[in-house]
Specification:
The complex is a heterodimer of chains A (about 425) and B (about 210).
Chain A (H helix, E strand, L loop, with lengths): L21 H6 L4 H7 L3 H11 L11 H9 L5 E6 L8 H8 L1 H15 L3 E6 L4 H17 L14 E6 L9 H8 L24 E5 H5 L1 H7 L1 H5 L2 E2 L2 E2 L1 E8 L5 E6 L5 H6 L13 E5 L19 H6 L8 E6 L4 H15 L5 H19 L6 H12 L15 H4 L1 H10 L1 H10 L6
Helix pairs in contact in A: 2-6, 2-10, 3-4, 3-6, 5-7, 6-7, 14-15, 14-18, 15-16, 16-18, 18-19
Chain B lengths: L5 H13 L7 H12 L4 H11 L3 H8 L13 E6 L2 H4 L3 H12 L12 E6 L11 E3 L2 E2 L5 H12 L26 H30 L1
Parallel strand pairs in B: 1-2
Antiparallel strand pairs in B: 1-3, 3-4
Helix pairs in contact in B: 1-2, 2-3, 3-4, 6-7
């Protein structure tokens, strides 16, 4: 049975139709945490986040407190919030920016205070037209309410927040690419090292980049204390997390669950959550954490939804998106479409990614649509191996950013888990499901 | 003489002023240029170049990187149908084919009457209502062929002008308020805060050293 008694930390207002307005936010405890934080020393605020052991909710799962502490040694110039949610089948930040923009804004103000930053940017993907409106409206209301702008709530702290729209590029979710876009350039990821924008960020100055969901957790953490947050979950996976469930399930949607206390089986099959598959269908495979993650099969259903638990089995919880494939889904088509996505979104700087993604996509296309050859099965793996040598997990990297090594995940998973399906495609001269 | 309409020109200048460096306003300004012309015209690009202190070639090169910017004229309504993984599993490809038949144009093309441009989209982050369709980047949530045809009819009749405004995702993003404090004051406030913090850290270190003795 799913464990559903944990508090809703970031989705507490999900049933309220006007959850995005200032009035509703204030009625439901909004901006109380900010007032509390402003009465604390900035390092005490940061210490609460450290105590919460909040792992970044963007995909890499780096501890937010540690990211901040790297910066405490030097003065930080900018705080940038990553709301460029574009990982296929991930739609949790979409929910947060449209449905609870004040919670995000309050989180950003708290983080800016902890870091003593006076200028923050919220980068939202351009396709979130309504999200951009809602967040700007929330900022306007926060300015008018005195929660933002000069001398916040009468304190000595001033902050300005600018909403910055993206314009349709998956790669801008990569933080250095996002900073390039924020500087008004093409979204090319930057060469590493330096590995962190903490060293060289926006305009070459120390910058913190945090995800929307990470920021949205902060009001609760300040209100209830880092220890209360850390008491939820298990191991390194503390607190709750939003899981975006999609694909062949009865109730796709965003669900907030205590980390590591529920399994993929709970998320997919519990009547209060995914509700299982359609009548008569069985689960074939599922993507456990965004399409960059290697797939799992029915044998991994009982894996807890925790960072290390999923990592130990050779995949990742990543962006928190779970996609279910049933027995009618064609795995070759699914892997082809995911590769097509990467091929389209590769920024083109690095040869293995730019060329490799296109080659794999074309071979997968012919396997799916006719014209595939038996030797294509090994050829496609060889190409994958060229992008991420050894096809290990976490992958070896031959490119500037991690988009490249994410390409092989789906093809490699599909081919190792369902080689017979590929053989059937070759023998059939195309997709047997068509 | 500005190519932009007066109100758009004013918003553009306000946007430039928000950033520490002018060039940072590039993407928002390109959205405004599309709002002005429906696509990125030569005149619009030249104006963005002037506003950001760059060149037209630089602006065009930057814009070409991003899917949402159109360097050629597009329809009044840009219809995006997602076929990425979650939508693929929910019939996204079939929806795209259906849209193509209804609108009478292939993905990437514009209908004969110039009203619609059809695009095959990547994931639009609305995967629980699949297949996902956006018009001018507004979620229209039509998941069946019938609903899609109704949508097209409504758009043609102008019944959705409020829900689906024309180009420019920033058309209703209007900033009010903001930090009207001189930058020097902020800098002074910041150095004071940093000094106070170092003093506290030193005091804490001294106290710890005292204790360990």
């Amino acid at each position: 049975m799913a464990s559903l008694d944990a508090p809703r930390i970031v989705s507490s207002r999900r049933d309220l139709a006007d959850s995005f307005t200032l009035n509703r936010y204030l009625e439901t405890g909004g901006y109380v945490a900010l007032k509390k934080a402003l009465g604390m020393f900035p390092e005490a605020v940061a210490a609460e986040v450290d105590a919460a052991s909040l792992l970044g909710r963007g995909g890499a799962g780096f501890p937010a407190g540690r990211k901040w502490s790297m910066l405490r040694r030097s003065a930080i110039s900018y705080l940038v919030v990553n709301g460029d949610e574009s990982e296929p089948a991930t739609f949790k930040d979409h929910y947060l920016v449209e449905r609870d923009p004040h919670q995000l804004v309050e989180g950003v103000i708290i983080a800016a205070y902890a870091l003593q930053v006076n200028q923050a940017f919220i980068f939202l993907r351009g396709e979130f037209a309504l999200g951009l409106e809602r967040v700007q409206q929330a900022l306007n209301e926060a300015y008018a309410h005195g929660a933002l702008g000069p001398k916040i709530f009468g304190s000595d702290f001033s902050l300005d927040i600018v909403v910055h729209p993206g314009a349709g590029a998956y790669i801008c979710g990569e933080e250095t690419s996002l900073l390039e876009a924020l500087e008004g350039k093409r979204g090319f990821p930057r060469i590493k090292p330096p590995f962190f924008p903490a060293v060289t960020g926006l305009y070459g100055e120390p910058t913190v980049v945090n995800n929307v969901e990470t920021m949205s957790n902060l009001p609760w953490i300040i209100n209830h204390g880092g220890a209360a947050f850390a008491a939820l979950g298990a191991g390194r996976s503390t607190g709750t997390r939003l899981f975006a469930l999609a694909g062949k399930v009865k109730n796709p949607g965003v669900y907030e669950l205590e980390m590591a206390k529920n399994t993929f089986r709970d998320l997919i099959f519990d009547p209060a959550l995914g509700g299982g598959l359609a009548e008569g269908r069985s689960l074939k495979a599922f993507v456990p954490g965004g399409v960059s993650a290697p797939w799992f099969g029915p044998d991994q259903l009982d894996t807890p939804l925790g960072q290390d638990e999923v990592g130990a089995l050779g995949s990742m919880l990543g962006s928190g998106s779970v996609v279910v494939l049933d027995d009618t889904s064609c795995v070759v088509r699914a892997a082809w479409r995911i590769t097509k996505f990467f091929s389209r979104e590769s920024c083109g700087q690095c040869t293995p990614c730019r060329e490799g993604s296109g080659w794999i996509e074309r071979i997968m296309y012919r396997l799916e649509h006719g014209g595939g050859r038996m030797e294509d099965l090994d050829l496609v793996l060889d190409l994958c191996d060229n992008i991420a040598p050894g096809l290990s997990w976490p992958p070896q990297q031959t490119t500037i950013c991690v988009l490249g090594p994410s390409i092989p995940s789906s093809v490699h998973s599909a081919l190792t888990m369902f080689r017979d399906d590929f053989v059937a495609h070759v023998n059939h001269g195309g997709c047997p499901h068509d | 003489m500005s190519h932009f309409r007066a109100d758009i020109r004013q918003r553009a200048e306000e946007l430039v002023a928000l950033y520490p460096r002018k060039r940072s306003a590039m993407l928002p300004l390109l959205h405004l240029a599309q709002e002005n012309d429906g696509y990125l015209s030569d005149e619009g690009i030249a104006e963005v170049a002037a506003l950001t202190g760059t060149t037209a070639a630089d602006v065009r090169g930057t814009a070409a990187f991003y899917d949402m910017f159109h360097l050629e004229p597009v329809g009044k309504y840009v219809v995006g149908v997602c076929t990425n993984i979650a939508c693929l599993l929910a019939g996204g490809e079939e929806m795209l084919e259906h849209a193509s038949r209804t609108l009478g144009c292939a993905p990437g093309a514009t209908s004969a009457d110039g009203l619609f441009t059809l695009e095959e989209s990547e994931c639009l982050a609305d995967c629980n209502i699949a297949p996902c369709v956006q018009v001018n980047h507004r979620y229209v949530r039509t998941t069946t062929p019938e609903a899609f045809d109704q949508l097209v009819e409504d758009l043609r009749a102008g019944r959705l002008d409020h829900d689906v405004p024309s180009h420019g995702t920033l058309i209703r993003v209007k900033r009010q308020g903001g930090l009207k404090v001189p930058a020097e004051d902020i800098a002074a406030e910041r150095s004071a805060a940093i000094a106070a913090r170092s003093a506290r850290a030193e005091a804490a270190a001294a106290a710890a050293a005292q204790e360990s003795k």
